[in-house]
Amino acid sequence: MSNEGIVDADEFEDSKVRVAADEFGRSIAKVAIGQICERIGFDSSNDSALEALADIAIRYVRDLGKTAKFYANVANRTECNVFDVIQSLEDLDSSTGFPGGSEAFTSLLQSSAMKEIIEYVEVVEEVPFAQPVPRFPIVRNRKLIPSFVQMGETPEFKHVPDWLPAFPDPHTYVYSPVWNERTSDPRSDKVELARQRRKAESSLLSLQKRLLSSGSAVTSTSEVSNGSKKSRFLAVTDGQTVNDSTEGEKAALEGDFNPVVLPGKRVKESSMENHVSILETFAPVIEALSGRVSESGENGERDFLDKRPAVRLNFNNGRKMMGDSLDLRLWNRGTGRISSWFGRDDVVDDKKRRAEYILRQSMENPLDLPQL
Amino acid sequence: MNHNQQSNEVRHDDENALSDFLASLTDYTPTIPDELVEHYLAKSGFQCPDVRLTRLVAVAAQKFVSDIAIDALQHCKARQAAVVRDKKDKQQKEKRLIMSMEDLSKALQEYGVNVKHQEYFADNPSAGLESASRDE
Predict the structure, then answer these.
(1) Is A134 in contact with B35 (Cβ distance < 8 A)?
(2) What highest taxon heads this organism's lineage (chain B) (predicted)?
C-alpha cells in the first residue's frame, strides 16, 4: 500500500522533532491498518485517512479493555475473563446493532457478536503483521539512591531511620580549595620543548635523505617503469640544473610520463652530477643536525657526502630556521613565484603541479641556506 | 425436563463452540500484533494473563476495522462508477482505489463517529458571494 502524501524535507524534519509519547504504538497501528486495507482491496490510501482509521482502531481496543475491566470489577474480580470481553463486545457493537441485541437476557455463550467474530476468523485469510514487534514500552530499571544501610553508613540524626536514601556525600556540597599539585619548572619545560622540536626536525631530515637516496637508486638502474614521483623529481631537476632548461623541463612536464626516456645517456650522466649537487645542498644541514643529535642508521648514508662543495654556510643559533626551511609552508609560499616563471597559461594538471613543487624544493633550498 | 435437557445440550454446544474457537485462536495470528494490543489494553486497565483473550480482542478490532474499510471501499467504488459513465464504458480501465477521507467519513457516519472535514474554507464573509455577482 503506497502512501499518496508527498513528504518534503521540511515536513520530515518537523515530524522528527515533534514526537508524541505514543508515537511507536501509533506507527505500528498504522502499518497494521494499512495491511488490513490492502487485503480488503484498496490500492492506496490518503495519509490522513490512514491515520484517522488507525486512531479509531486504537480507541476501539482501549474501549474494549476499559469496558471489560469494568465488567470484571462489577463482578468483584480484578482479572478479566472471556465473558467480560464478550459483554464489552456486545456493548460496543450495540450502536450498529447485531442480531439478538434487543433481547434483555441472553446467554453470553450464544452471543451473536461472538458468533460474528467466529465466522470472521473462519472466513478471512490470515495475514500476520509484517514485521516482528518488540515488547513495548521498554521498562528501564531506575537507578535508586542507595539507602543508609546499603551504603554502610549510620545516619547522624536519631530520627532518621536507616532504610531511607542516604544523604549526599559532603564533597558534593562543601567547597574546598584546590591548588596545582604539579610543580612547574620553567627551565625543564623549555628544555623538553626544545628536545621535542629537535626530534621532529631530525626525523624530517631523515625523510628527505631517504627520498633522495631512493631517487638516485631509481635512475641509476635507468628503469622508469611507472613515472613515479621520484623519477620525475630527477628528470625535472635534470632539466633545470643542466641549463637546457626548456627542453628538459618540457619533455618532463608535457604530460607524457615515461619521462626519463629522454635523451637517455644525457640523463644518466647529468643525473649523477645532479643528485650529488642536490645532496650537497642538504649535506651541511644534515651535518649540522647530526652533529648535535646522534641518529641511528645514518652512518651508511654518509657515503654520498664525500664530495663537498665549496659553499660557505652561515648558521644561526636558530636550529629552528633550518627546520623551517624544510617546512611545507615555504613550499606553499613559493608556488606563486614558480608558476609565474614558467609562464604557462594553460591548465596544469596535478602531476605537473607536483613536479613544480619538487622543482621549487630544489631551488628554494640553495636560496634559503644562505639565509641561515 | 426435556426443555431443560435441550437447553443444557444447547449450552453445551455453545460452550464447545466457544472453547474450540478459543483454542483455534492460539494458532491464528491476527494482523494487529499482540504486543500492540497488550500495550493499549494495559493502558486501559485490562488485566489478563491469557493470550487467547488478547487475541480475541485483536481479532475483534481487526473485524471492526475491516467492516469500516469495506464500507469505505463500497463508497469509493460507487463514486467511481458514477463518474465513469459515457466514454469508456467498454474499456473500463482499472483505476486505483484510494481510501480518501471523504469515503471514510461517510462509512464512519454509520458507526456514530464524526470525522468530517470542512468542505471549504472561506477567508472572508463575502468569498462565495463575489462569484455569483460576476456571473451576472
Answers:
(1) yes
(2) Eukaryota
